Amino acid sequence: MVAADHEHTSQIIANDAKTPGQTATLIANEGANMALSYGTALPGSSMEHTGTQVRIAASGRRRRTSSG
Length: 68
Description:
- This protein has strands at 2-3, 10-13, 22-27, 33-38, 56-57.
- With 68 residues, it is mainly β.
- The chain has one domain.
- The radius of gyration is 17 Å and the shape is elongated.
- The protein starts with a strand and ends in an 11-residue tail after the last strand.
């Protein structure tokens, strides 16, 4: 059985983009603004845990007893 260790729900977006989720603007290493969107966090809410699903995969004789 194999499982991913984490998933990403954030994306780099255009600085003036309107998104349905929480956004943050960072300063990149060359000094330019870089906007991020967190698709699973509502504006004003916490971005600590994004609640995304992590897939698993199984093979072999008992693969049908695993789900995910």
